[in-house]
Every structure is written in structure tokens, then in C-alpha cells.
Amino acid sequence: MEVEEGVQIDDKAKRMRDMLSSFYSSDPSSNASSLQNYTSSSSRFATLDTINTTSFDANMYMNLLVQKSNLENLLQKHVEMAAEIKNLDTDLQMLVYENYNKFISATDTIKRMKNNIVGMEANMEQLLEKIMSVQSKSDGVNTSLFDKREHIEKLHRTRNLLRKVQFIYDLPTRLENCIKSEAYADAIKFYTGAMPIFKAYGESSFQDCKRASEEAVAVIIKKLQGKVFSDSESIQARAEAVMLLKQLDFPVINLKVKLFEKLDQFLVNLDLESVELTNASVDDNELPKGGTVLDSASSAAHEASIREFVEAVRAYRVIFLDSEQQLLKLAQDFVTKHFEATRQQIKKQFRSVELLAILRVIWSDVLLISEVLPEADLPDYALQAARIVVKDYIDSTFKHLLLDISDALTKAQVRQKEGVEGEYSLQVALEASRKAVIQGSMDVLLNFRQLLDENSDLLLKLRDSIIDWVQEGFQNFFGTLDDHFLLLSGKSNSASQNLNIPEGISVLTGLVLVLAQLSLFIEQSAIPRITEEIASSFSGGGTRGYEYGPAFVPAEICRTFRSAGEKFLDLYIKMRTQKISVVLRKRFTAPNWVKHKEPREVHMFVDLLLRELEAIGTEVKQILPQGLHHKHRRTESNGSTTSSRSNPLRDDRLSRSNIQKARSQLLETHLAKLFKQKMEIFTKVEHTQGSVLTTIVKLSLKSLQEFVRLQTFNRSGFQQIQLDIQFLKTTLKEIAEDEAAVDFLLDEVIVATAERCLDPIPLEPPILDKLVQAKLAKNSEQISVS
């Protein structure tokens, strides 16, 4: 339906155009042909459209209309035709109204054109006659002057040739005058102008002139070379000298190589100057009041050198137009060497103030060079190099902090190995190590804070990265410190090349105890304070990817050093117990216990054991706190923490003198084991004096019990062990906190000895007490004498 409506609209528009065309057309045949074409083109849509053609037949149209339409359609067609006629009248009227002014203007224009054309042909004929007259007179003049003009042109050519010959003969003199007046451009202009004649006749007619001119040109070339290499000449003058040399076909490439070698040497001298300034800043222990490392004179000299380099680059860009890539490489190499010299200085003990001063100098140099070489993109290039330098500085600072802590610990190890206890005790080593950790960390944070406070563009762009590097640095530092503690304690076989650990120094027990307490200090004091400082001054960052997690995890570090403190404390106890085990092994493997003699005094191994425990107590008291004293004393009631077999063994054996009674008592002892209350011998070790000493005593007595079980004793050997254990009961009460556990283990040693004895008859209590008292008196006498 929509397609049919579109077709009807197009047909109506075409019909309107055809009608207007036929109305205004002066050729009826063309009008008829257009209408015929329209009819033929539109007949495929409606057969009743022939009403618009010149061959319209009303009768045929009406018959066709009546045949194809009913009454209702006829009435509708009538209404449509009436409306169409009315619309056509309206359209024609509007068309006439709109174009009326155009019609009037066109009529006036046509009238004026008819009036202006009148008389134009006569004027054109007069103009043609005058042109023909001028042409005839010009031909006459040319004919009369032809011979004279040819003669004049010949004379002119001869004159020009004579002037050229005279110029060639005068050329050497002209060149000398130009050299004296330094008019090198005119001299080269004269010489290049004479070059075609010299090439053609230089070997015959003008041989002398050519030789003299070439000698003068050689002098000019030397003068121009000197001007190019002269730093006093202006850039424009040096560029003009190079251009003149190019006109003389001089090999400028060799000149360019020499100039760039000179510029390269200048950069080498500038690098040496920068290194000397840096070394002076590092060797200077006191900073100037202004806070800058480089003094004003050195800074001014350096800035003058950089400006001289910048001017040289500007000149070279003008002189050698194809030297851009070579200049870019020189500038980048200069910045690279500058940063490389800084990296070498960072390996020493370097302060952030010094680093900032050097970075300021480098950044100012980069900005000056970028003004003449913007294509080098030196700011971004310097930013990447500065990123590496600052990262290296942060890593180097943490390495020096680790060295300081290591020095404090290894100093204690060396002094303890040499036996110098008074000069450098374990307590002093612990305090020095604590100070190295906490004060060193605060100094490091202060240094890094100065990097963040710098307001230069270079450091501002690296601010977030510096924050991340500091946090990562502390995380890695404490991980490395933990590994180094393991290395010092002998639990790690990995070599540390960068740490000052003296070779041949064995691991000492006192150092292990210091490491245990230092680890506890790091967990409880150092990490919280460092975390607080990082949160207040180094929060932010963000260059680290979220997938890697936070850079600084204090909880993880605390767990690491809590575990390290426990491991080192256990290692200390193990090392001390092993040393005591060596004394016990020597005691029980050397004699023949089956042939042992009757005991007369407490054996000397007891003195050695007590001496070892005394040494342990000395070390522990220097490092560990006392803690709360909880003396666990044994009771006499059944089911108490004491062994129910100890008193029966001592009392009943006094009244029995034969082997059968002793063995029956041993049987009673085994029966008592079934009904005694179970005792917890080994508990968790705490970082206190009493806990460590008690644990070592317990382990030593347990070792003593195992050594006893490996031997076979006669009666005298059994009595000797009884005497030694009785003496230890008296002395160990003052050392160990858990008296009940110590008594229990001592009784276990007696029982184990009785089990391995061929004739387990104990000493009588009076004799036992007498020997113990004699030993105590002897020890008191030795103490008073010493």
C-alpha cells in the first residue's frame, strides 16, 4: 500500500513538471514528445493517464472509465479531478507570481544587449587596421638595424671574454687580498667561479694562475679549519667556516670526527670532575651549614662546564646537520656515566643528603642539555637511571645496617673466644646489638624521609616507588637478618660474602644466647616501633601490584623472630647440655666400675659439672631476666611430686645388711612406681634465668641416668654414685627452680644405678653425711682462699 502511494506521488510530480514544461515551451513537438514519453513510462501504472497527452480522446477515456469503474468510483473520480484542476490553477498562479520579477529583469537585459551591440563591428575593423600598421613599421625597423645589432653582440661577447681572462690573471691577487681582510667567503666565491676555466685551460694557458690560486686556497682552508676548532669563535662563524669548506670539496667528515673526539674528551674530563666532587662530598664528614654537599665554587665551575658543553652541542647541530644521532648518543652516555659514578659511590657509607645533592646536579645538567637536544628525551632517560640509583641506595643502606648489627655480634663472638669477658661482656654485646637494630633502623628511616621531603621533579616522580622500596626493603632486611642469625648460630651452612665474619671463629654458646634475646627484642620492641614510623612517614606507595600483596607485613616478621628466639634458646640449651654430656661420658666410660674402689670423697666430675652450670648461670644472668621464682618442693605424702621409693630406700637399707634384703627393697621400689603420681619433667622453656638453668639441669640429669644404664657397677661403684648424687641434691637446690623434678631425676639415677649394680648395698647415712659435709667444707675453704 505504501509503495502504491509513493508511485502516485511520483507520477503527480512528473505530470506537474511536464505540464509546466509544455506551457512554457516554444517547441510544441518537443512538448508532445515529452508528454508521449511520460505517457509511455507511466502507462504501466494506470491506463487512464492518457488525459495528460496531446492525443487525448475524451470519448475513449469516458468509455474506458465507465467500463472499469462503478458508480461510486465514478463519483470519487469526479471529486478527484475537480480538486486536481483547482490545485493546478493554484500552482500555475503561484508560479507566475514567484517568477514575475525575474521575467521583467530578463526582458530589460535583453533590450540593453540589443542596444550595446550596435556599432561594435565598425570599432573592431578600425582596431585591426591600426594593428597591421604597427606591425609593418616594426618589421621595417628590424630590417634596418639587423646588421648593426649583430656587430654589437659580437663586440659584447668579446668584451666579456676579455674580462674573464683579466679576472683569471687577477685571481691570485684577489685571493691574497681576501685572506688579509679575512673575506673568506668572497675568496671562495672567486675561486669556484674560476674553476671551470682552470679545468679547461689550467694545464696550458693559465698554469701559473692556477698554481698561485691553489696555494692561496690552501691557506684559506687552514684558516677555516682553525676557525672551526677555535672555541673563541661564535657558533655562526664556525658554521660558516664549515659551509665554506664544503664548497671547496674539503672532506668535512674528517673534521667532524676530530670535533666529536674533542667533545668526547671534554665529557670525559667533565665526568672526572663530577667524580672528584662526589668523592669530596663523601670524604667530608661535616655538612656545610647550608645543607649542600658541593660548595658554591665547585658548583659554579661545574655549571660553567655544562653550559660550555651545551653551547658546543648547539654549535655542532648548526655546523653538522646530520650529527643529531651522534649528539643524542653523547648526551645519553654522559647521563649514564654520571649515574654510574653515583652508583659506585653508593657502595660506600653514603648519606641521603649527599645523594640528593648529586641528583640535583645531575637533574640540572639534564634540563640544560634537554634545551638543545629535546629529541634525546633525557628527562625520561634520567628518570629511569635515577630509579635504579635510588633503589640501589636503599638496598645498600639496608646492607650497611646489616653489617653494623653483624659487627656488634661478631665483636662479642671474637672477644668471648679470646676470653676478654670484662672488656666486652655478653650484656654489652646485647645492648650494642639492640642499639644497632633500633637506632640504626631509625637512622635509616630518617635518611629515607629526606628523600621524600625533596621537592625536585626527579624525586617527586619517584615518591611512590621510594615508599614501596622502603617497605619492601625492611621486609627483606629482616628476612636476611634472620638468615644471618642462623649463620652466626651455626645452623646454616650458606656462606655470606658481604658480611664481616672472621674465619676460624667457632660458634660460642654466649652468642647463641644473645641471638635468642635479640630476636625477642626485635619481635617485642623493634618491629612495633618501626611499623609506627613507617605508618606515619611512608604510607601510600601503590606502584607495587595488588597481586603481590602488601610490601611490609610486620605480623609475619614478628612470627619469624618469635620462632627464631625459641630456636636459638633451644639451641643454647642443646649446646650447653652437649658439653655437659661430654663430661659425663668421660666420667662413666673411663673407670672399670666392676672393680671400683670404696668411695672416700665426692668425685671431681661433680666439680666439673657444677663449674659448667656456674658458667651457664654467669651467661644467663647477663642476658636473661630473673623472672618469677616458683620453687617446686617435694612433700612426704603419698601421691606427691616426690618419688615414694626414696625414703624407704634410705631408711630400710640402714637396718639391712645382706643382699637379699637390699634386693627386696629394690622390688618394693619398682612396685612403688606403679602407684606414684606421674610428674611432668620437661616443660616449655621461657626466656628467664631460672627456666633455662632448670631445663639444662634436667637434661643433664637425664643424660646421667642414661650413662648409668650403660654400665655395670659393684658395691663400691654404686656407693660412689650414691655419694655424688647426695652432694648434688644439696647444691642443685640453689640452681634449679623445680626442686621436685630435680630430686625425682636424682632418685631415678640412684634407682638406675641400683638396677645395674651386682651388690646394691648403699652407704650408711652417717658416713654419707660425713663425706658430703667434708666436700662442702673443702669448697668453702677454696672459695675463701680465692
Automatic annotation (TrEMBL):
<keyword id="KW-0653">Protein transport</keyword>
<keyword id="KW-0333">Golgi apparatus</keyword>
<keyword id="KW-0813">Transport</keyword>
<feature type="compositionally biased region" description="Polar residues">
    <location>
        <begin position="637"/>
        <end position="647"/>
    </location>
</feature>
<comment type="function">
    <text>Acts as component of the GARP complex that is involved in retrograde transport from early and late endosomes to the trans-Golgi network (TGN).</text>
</comment>
<dbReference type="GO" id="GO:0042147">
    <property type="term" value="P:retrograde transport, endosome to Golgi"/>
</dbReference>
<protein>
    <recommendedName>
        <fullName>Vacuolar protein sorting-associated protein 51 homolog</fullName>
    </recommendedName>
</protein>
<keyword id="KW-0175">Coiled coil</keyword>
<dbReference type="GO" id="GO:0006869">
    <property type="term" value="P:lipid transport"/>
</dbReference>
<feature type="coiled-coil region">
    <location>
        <begin position="68"/>
        <end position="137"/>
    </location>
</feature>
<dbReference type="GO" id="GO:0005829">
    <property type="term" value="C:cytosol"/>
</dbReference>
<dbReference type="InterPro" id="IPR014812">
    <property type="entry name" value="Vps51"/>
</dbReference>
<dbReference type="GO" id="GO:0007030">
    <property type="term" value="P:Golgi organization"/>
</dbReference>
<dbReference type="GO" id="GO:0000938">
    <property type="term" value="C:GARP complex"/>
</dbReference>
<feature type="region of interest" description="Disordered">
    <location>
        <begin position="626"/>
        <end position="653"/>
    </location>
</feature>
<dbReference type="Pfam" id="PF08700">
    <property type="entry name" value="VPS51_Exo84_N"/>
</dbReference>
<comment type="subunit">
    <text>Component of the Golgi-associated retrograde protein (GARP) complex.</text>
</comment>
<dbReference type="GO" id="GO:0015031">
    <property type="term" value="P:protein transport"/>
</dbReference>
<keyword id="KW-0445">Lipid transport</keyword>
<comment type="similarity">
    <text>Belongs to the VPS51 family.</text>
</comment>
